[in-house]
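pinging the channel bc i need a second pair of eyes. not urgent but kinda urgent?? the chain im working w is below, pasted from the shared doc
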Amino acid sequence: MIKDLSGETPPKTGTGRAVRATPFQVTRDRRTAQSAPTKELDGELLAFVRQEMAELSVPGVAIALAHDGAVASAGLGITNALAPLPVEVDTLFQIGSITKPMVGTAIMSLVEQGKIELDAPVQRYLPGFTVADSHVAATVTVRHLMTHSVGWAGADRFDDHGGGEDALEKMVAGMAGLEQIHPLGKMFSYNNTGFYVLGRILEVIERLPFEVVMRRRIFEPLGLDSATFFAHEVITSKYSVGHAPVGRGMRITRPWAMPRSTNAAGGVICTVQDLMTFLLFHLGQVEPKSHVLSRQSRALMAAPALDDEEFRLGSPWIGLTWRLGQTGLTPIVGHGGGAHGQPSFSRMLPSEGFAMAILTNATTGAELAERTWRWVVERYLGMHADSVRSVSALTAADISERAGAFDGDCERHSVTLTPEGLHLNTRIKRDWLSGMEPSFSEVASNGGLLRPISDDVMKTQDGERVEFLRDASGTVKWLRVGTRVAPRSD
């Protein structure tokens, strides 16, 4: 079974592996009859991706794979439906939240230097930091920020504080009124605002703008020459724009640029090749020009960092900024990104020396990346994706305690009983980014019938994970849809 990165516990079975092929084109030496991989991706893989692009209306894709020391990449399709140019391996894409493990790497480099302690309170580094709960403000730690376990609201807050070097400082100051929606450190709930705080810590300690810190500590030592945060640096290069299939048509997503104040949560723009270089560094296959982070610290980032048995709400599938998972018994490390109209994907199998990065330019690109991942690991690694089996039907008591309303940052979820079973309906309350075109409500999924997977874990027909989370008394108090927790509001 291939487990998603949202926390489903895999069965205790072997992988049943039988490697069938290589993801690279090969050449054969006529004298020795030995084959060797080239720097070109397998034609069957590229054909599969093209087929998925057509089915899912994704105009352009950049893909890179690494295995056993070999690396190859390819660009497919076009950058912009209105002004089409071919996507190439050096085309720039917004990688969205894959920025987060890059920020995590910079934080850990300061941990190694003794400038940051993971379990130190944030106020040690930002004395004026506060949220609505003064106790939380005084006790939240760097580790809480890196594991999305802060518990306050505002998970999808993308306020624009202008383009000046004080943008991030203003963003963090504006968090003072954020209320707690779940206990500090007790559960994983994806929260972008925690990374604004991490970015501000980098600024204060280094006495430099966040973007300069990232360039000096990550981009330059790793040779990520394309990486930037700024649209004005992109405009003279080859770059992709986002798209959204709406009805039978295709619309360009706007705005293109993210506010500078949000750069620490998802502002990196780079090529698929540079993203792969970053992954290979974490796999120990790339030597930086100067020291970035030790192997021990990289391993710590990829180890489970949040698991609370008392509440059973923490997820063992979150590391220090990396999302974790499993294929059979093989650990997965990765992260995705969701810049407006440009979903991105990165995943590694450290024990196999295997990595894949996919950058896309349509809202349906996340589904393309997941399908490609499953196809790739089955064909080239012999790891088979089993279908998820439902457990026995819920009782009337089970249904009554789960039905209700749950209010998230941008969405309101309603769980109701229908003749077919429990049904999730999601209503969009607001766009997560000011001035979004098309609106979030035009492209977001609205839920659907829920299939039970285990006692409190279900999935929608689209495969989105839904969890009913309980407090210490056993009462259902929160709903986690995908990666975001919404408190009960009825």
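so The mean pLDDT is 87. and The first strand starts at residue 24 and ends at 28. — does that match what u expected or am i reading it wrong
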